[in-house]
Design brief:
With about 160 residues, this protein is α+β, with helices and mostly antiparallel strands. Helix content is about 55%, strand content about 10%.
């Protein structure tokens, strides 16, 4: 039964790490970041399972992980406070054509990155933007000053 607290601790540490990383980093993983993400299970595997490589221990670990994911999901749904701790909240990056510098700095987004996103949405000038919001999934939503949502073109070619 030593596996249950080990899985719980690993789950909490990984969740805290992802919250610290921020919204934007998780939405656009570079190859280096993807490799890092894939190495996390390898780093924790020995610490979680210890010396017991039995099927029973693997099932206990897997069941514990699923239970933790389910419980945190239910808690985030039922408790607004827990949900805001667990899940990132949207951040306003542009308000009525003006950059919101404090939010850009907190989210570690450069003006150049934001302008690139605006250009991909078909807007060349900041004055055309009513709102630009960094959503909790790391994407930037743009609302034009004329009230229409700015659309990003669908990617062309096969998605890999």
């Amino acid at each position: 039964m030593e596996t249950v607290p080990r899985i719980a601790l690993a789950y909490v540490v990984i969740m805290i790490g992802f919250r610290i990383m921020g919204k934007r980093e998780l939405s656009q993983l570079s190859p280096f970041e993807l490799v890092t993400l894939l190495l996390i299970p390898e780093i924790f595997a020995q610490a979680i399972i210890g010396e017991d490589f039995s099927m029973t221990n693997a099932v206990v670990a897997f069941t514990t992980l699923l239970a933790l994911v389910f419980v945190t999901s239910v808690m985030a749904h039922r408790s607004r406070r827990f949900g805001t701790i667990l899940e990132a909240q949207p951040s306003v990056l542009v308000a009525h054509g003006e950059l919101v510098e404090t939010n850009l700095n907190r989210e570690r987004i450069t003006p150049d990155e934001l302008y690139s996103e605006l250009r991909m949405s078909g807007l060349e000038d900041l004055s055309l933007v009513k709102w630009a919001i960094l959503e909790s999934d790391g994407n930037i939503s743009v609302v034009r000053a004329d009230g229409q949502a700015a659309e990003r073109p669908a990617p062309s070619g096969p998605i890999t």
